[in-house]
Amino acid sequence: MRLREKRVNCPPHCVLCNSADEDSLHLFFNCPSSSNVWNLSNLSNDVKIAVTQGLNSNAVIFHLLQVLSAEESALFATILWSIWKQRNNKIWNDVTDAQNFVLERASSLLYEWNAARNARLNNNVVNRDGICIRDDEGAFVIARTKCLTPKCDVHIGEALGLLTALQWVHELQLGPIEFELDSKKVVDSFGANRHDSTEFGAIINDCKTLFNHFYENSSVEFVRRQANGTAHELAKAATLSTNFHILVTPPHCIEHILINDML
Ligand SMILES: [Zn+2]
Question: Ligand 1 centre and the CA of 26: distance in Å?
């Protein structure tokens, strides 16, 4: 709905069931497709009870996060993300994700995150590419970490971090974003106009191309390392994993930093 108000060309109906107006209550809960996904999960009863109370989608989500256990809340949040991804895949890529796959994708994401969180941390191979998105008020929205080859040059790692963030946020269709990086070299090169034919320069060029194509009213800014502690903690958590991680609830390791930042 919000995208349509901004004149982005989205279909007005629900692409998962081809009927009704797509509002968030329908998409996430009342759509027959999404309702089947919940039925396949062990959250089906709680979701049904919450939805029949006649609340709007925000209230349903808030209510469920209050009543579910921490483990269930994490699954609940990843399923919401996976349904959103299913909808975007249909609209932007014309790909139909099966309902059991939507649940599986959520579960495996959670599994990977838990595995990364439990992994032993080794500070020597930390790369600075944790990504954390917060809303206007500083509240946590979504985060992701990706582990790069441990031995790559630190500036290249930082530039790849920015490129990953630009690609990922574009994929999520989140709108204007302020990217905060603690690498002065990356931010300066991103803002500069000089030609740089090194590998680092090529990555920065890719960043500029993506940014110019897809980002309006957005910015890439330098922040002091302490202020950007969240990303570092996420990068640490990803150290021993080779996969992407999208963290849809504040993982334990960054919770205290998010709270500190919001105060
Ligand atoms: Zn529908």
Answer: 6
Angle at 119 between CA 113 and CA 123, to 5 degrees: 110
CATH class label, 119-262: alpha beta
Closest of 235, 231, 257 to residue 244, by C-alpha: 235
Inter-residue long-range contacts of 248-257, CB under 8 Å, 24+ positions, other chains counted: 248/74, 248/77, 248/78, 248/80, 248/81, 248/109, 248/142, 248/143, 249/73, 249/74, 249/77, 250/140, 250/143, 251/113, 251/117, 251/143, 252/117, 253/117, 254/132, 254/143, 254/230, 257/229, 257/230, 257/233
Domain extent listing, the chain: 2-98, 119-262
Q: pLDDT tens-digit profile of 135-146?
A: 555 555 555 555
Distance 13 CA to ligand 1 centre (A): 8
Cα(91) to ligand 1 centroid in Å equals 13
- For ligand 1, the distance from its centroid to the CA atom of residue 86, given in whole angstroms, is 12
Distance 58 CA to ligand 1 centre (A): 18
Tell me, in angstroms, the distance from the centre of ligand 1 to residue 31's CA: 4
Q: What's the pLDDT tens digit per position in 130-170?
A: 565 555 555 555 555 554 445 567 787 778 778 877 777 67
Ligand 1 centroid to Cα of residue 172, in Å, is 20
